[in-house]
């Protein structure tokens, strides 16, 4: 399971301010801490960037690349911002991402082919909503895979995100159970070992007691690992959840065990 | 997932001393704390009880029953001790357990039929060793189930223990991966929703750094839950692992989620 860090996000005031002022220093410092904490992919969640998308995403990608050679995930719904990031990228770039929404199929999915980049495909209805039941979730996985193939993409470039629902949603618990079952079945369903990603912070989004949130996330992550999740997007600056993630990797291995290998 | 508590064990000096002196007070106190901490089954690990097995097991069962009505799991390799416990039991008793070892098939398995008790079946070779590979583990599950049926037991009385290996064993990691796969496949393999149990403390048995042990156990438990484990035997007096177990139960549910229901 690869660890993608979700900390570089416009929803953090510090990041929003640095982006507004085009000040690379706080971002460099944050990315450096993310890398030290074990990040293997840096997610740049820039939001839609309605004003100056090219300039702003270019600045973010350039600043991250000043600090690290880690793969970058471009997390935006704005095709212009995504393309600017893809043009600036020197290393591996992942587009995050497309869904069956017509606008995204038309303007985001083709970028993966044009730039030969990996791309995240969200299992959402064409209207952007989370599926109502297990059958629709399965059907969306087939449709998202089919859309990627139809666009000419090598299927190995696809990373499926089944979208973890916040527990506080009316059907959040039920949906997340369906997500576990789907993740387990995906390789058989699509006929190849498709890569997958899930945003763990979604699980406990919204108000709620912090300690309970932490324990629920710590329990859900190994459940995802047990059904074969290949990438997790998480708060890499939370040592407790990172420790659990590292333990999941140890336990998913088949090698000889030594305590020295356990990085917690 | 039911929580069976492994704290009442002869390997704890306090328990050994109380049993030697036939002093019920420390045991009553311990069982009371186990129940308060969330135990749903009390495992009485008496060891083989080579001297006075009936008297000693009778004392242990009686003492536990003075404190609680919870189901009791009789954890001994001594058929005389097990039968004494079964005779004394006023509530639900689980025999823990038998394997394909000839002595256990001959003298322990029949007790389940005689006393209409549930019984744990260990997936071990007839020589008592842990299986070497995934094929043998699967084959042992079929054989243990077959032995129970052949003995006249209702298959619903069987609880399969695939035996978690200590990570420090040469093939411990590999075996535990096989255990996860087997647990997932067992209902299909045996054709009914067979109940299962695993002793979590086994995972980190032996020397090693305490903090790493805790995190590995906290990660492995949800993995077991995700593949359908129905009972876990654990240290109920460790609030961190119990919190994870409770979170697993919440996340395995399909009901409407509320923070108030999350007992952590």
Return the CATH topology of chain A.
Answer: TIM Barrel
Classified by CATH, the class of chain A is Alpha Beta
Q: What structural category arises from helix and sheet content of chain A?
A: alpha/beta
Report the largest inter-chain contact. Answer: A-B, 42 and 42 residues
> End-to-end span of chain A in angstroms?
15 Å
Count of spatially separate domains of chain A: 1
Describe the overall structure.
Two copies of one chain form a homodimer. Chain A is of the alpha/beta class and 264 residues long. The first copy, chain A, has one domain: Alpha-Beta Barrel (TIM Barrel), CATH 3.20.20.20. The first copy, chain A, has ten helices and eight strands. An eight-stranded parallel barrel of chain A has the order 1-2-3-4-5-6-7-8, surrounded by six helices. In chain A, strand 3 (72-75), helix 4 and strand 4 form a beta-alpha-beta unit. In chain A, helix 3 packs parallel to helix 4, helix 7 crosses helix 8 and helix 9 (210-226) packs parallel to helix 10. The longest helix of chain A has 19 residues, at 172-190. The radius of gyration of chain A is 18 Å and the shape is globular. The first copy, chain A, starts with a strand and ends in a 12-residue tail after the last helix. The mean pLDDT of chain A is 96. The interface between A and B is large, with 42 and 42 residues.
